[in-house]
Each structure stands twice: as C-alpha cells, then as structure tokens.
Amino acid sequence: MLKAIYLQLGAALITAILAGAIVGIRGLVSVGFAALAAILPNLFFAVRLTMLKDRPGASYAASFFIGEFLKIAATIGILAIAIKGYPAMHWPSLLIGLAIVLHAGFLAFWKK
Fold first, then answer.
1. Coiled-coil intervals in this record (predicted)?
2. How big is the chain by its Cα radius of gyration, in Å?
C-alpha cells in the first residue's frame, strides 16, 4: 500500500513542478493542495489497514468500507478548507493535479 502512496507523491512533485513552470506560484500551490488532499487520507487509510490486518476477530471488510468512507470525507474536507483558505486557487491546476495524483496510485497495482 505504501508503494501506491510513494507513486502518488512522485506524481505530485512532477505535476507541481510543471504547474509552477507553466502557471507560476498559483499553479504550484494549487497542485500542492490537491496532492495534500489525496495523499494524506490515503496514508492514514493505509496505516489503519496495516494495523488491523493482524488483529484477531476484526471485521476486515467493515473496517475497509468505513475507512474508505472516512478517506473520501477527509479528501473533500481538505479540498474545501484549501479552497476557502487560498482564494487565488488556480482551478485547472487543482483539478489536473488531483486527477493525476489519484490515478498514480493505480500504477502500483499494474507494476509489481
């Protein structure tokens, strides 16, 4: 699971550098907020599942679905805070950065 998070972090860095070069500081910060909103909840979710895997009698399926719901809620919450707190948000950079970072995690399953 951590491999997917490392790939997301790498994709975020590359995307932020490109957005900073093309758009400027607004693009870099916008991609940074998108990366934070995607990577931080995924990291907490991975740590939570890792802690639950060795617990006897734990309902792994229920924990997975509850964790997934909390991950989505945290992502939406972080994005809402970022949008309210940074009024100079560059929307194309935010949306493109979010899409790239979220899809980078799938490469971990494709490339073993």
1. none
2. 15
Q: CB of 101 within 8 A of CB of 39? A: yes
Rounded CA gap, 96 and 18, in Å?
11
Domain ranges, ordered by start, for the chain: 1-108
Phi-psi domain of 86 (left: phi exceeds 0; alpha: psi -120 through 50; beta: other):
beta
Given a cut of 70, whether residue 57 has pLDDT beyond it is: no
Taking the model in full, what pTM does it have?
0.86
**CA 91, CA 52: separation in Å to the nearest integer?**
37
Torsion of CA 100, 102, 108, 110, to 10 degrees: -70
Euclidean distance between CA atoms 15 and 77, whole angstroms: 22
Q: Worst-scoring range by mean pLDDT, 34-38, 41-45, 49-53, 96-100?
A: 49-53
